[in-house]
């Protein structure tokens, strides 16, 4: 089974890369882009087919390594 | 006095750190990151700068979970003195030994130049050779040195006099101009600037030398 983790900087944490992307979009003539936040997506290929267990395991992975919860938040999709 | 310098794949300031520590009289052992045990009878551990594990995932994140890092945490928990410089600071925050996190520089550029640092406290073995509010010149070389912590955490660091160094002219967007912080017991220091690169006359600047000199003096008299 597959899991997909989205990691984003928490609201309120300045994202200079997102801000640079927003600025560049404006330079290309895309008006009206009021904010850009850049994050990352991590795809995991997991053994087993217990979705509940997978969710619990991936949550543990996020807390221990995949996200730095001081500055980042995460969401998990299991498919 | 015995010191260890931890080496991860991608560390590149490890030998500079060794030279500085040896320069003040430490007996230095280099410790590879897969060694789960630190040498016996250590007085001091330094986590050097560089790009451990290629900065994959987040700067310092993978290094903070490697076997030696647990040993560093144990050493610190027992009251050991630990220094993290640049990537070493990132590793120590990722390992939870110091609060906060280091984000991409606000200007998005890698910055490599000498900056003015204000000594915010002399109450630590790392800073007691300087005077309060003294400005020293120390090189920085980083892409992710933008110190970030909650407003409460920043207030706590200030309140407990745990900001060791601040930038005179903030180069990277760090909150509160913070360049280096101490742990609660004041024995773990993380800082983005490189005192080991301002150690000998050949560096063109020796403002970092008192940093190391006071360190070994404190160990010797402890």
Description:
The complex is a heterodimer of chains A (79) and B (222). Chain A contains 2 helices and 3 strands, in the order E-H-E-H-E. Chain A has one domain (2-78): Mth169, Chain: A (2-Layer Sandwich), CATH 3.30.1280.10. Helices cover 35% and strands 27% of the residues of chain A. The longest helix of chain A has 16 residues, at 51-66. Chain B has 222 residues and is an alpha/beta fold. Helices cover 23% and strands 26% of the residues of chain B. The chains are: A alpha+beta (79), B alpha/beta (222). At the A-B interface, helix 1 and helix 2 of A face loops of B.
Q: Span between N and C termini of chain A?
A: 6 Å
**How much of the polypeptide of chain B forms β-strand, as a percent range?**
25-35%
CA-based gyration radius of chain A: 16 Å
Strand content of chain A: 25-35%
Largest sheet of chain A: 3 strands, antiparallel
CATH class of chain B reads Alpha Beta
What general outline of chain B do the C-alpha atoms trace? Answer: globular
Strand order of the largest sheet of chain A: 2-1-3
Structural domains of chain A: how many:
1
**Total helical segments of chain B:** 5
The average pLDDT value of chain B, as a whole number, equals: 96
CATH homology superfamily of chain B:
Class I glutamine amidotransferase (GATase) domain
Give the SSE string of chain A: EHEHE
SSE pattern of chain B, N- to C-terminal = EHEEHEHEEEEHEEEH
Q: Low-confidence stretches of chain A at least 5 residues in length (pLDDT < 50)?
A: none
Helix content of chain B: 10-25%
Q: Number of domains in the coordinates of chain B?
A: 1
What CATH architecture of chain A do you see? Answer: 2-Layer Sandwich
Largest sheet of chain B: 9 strands, mixed
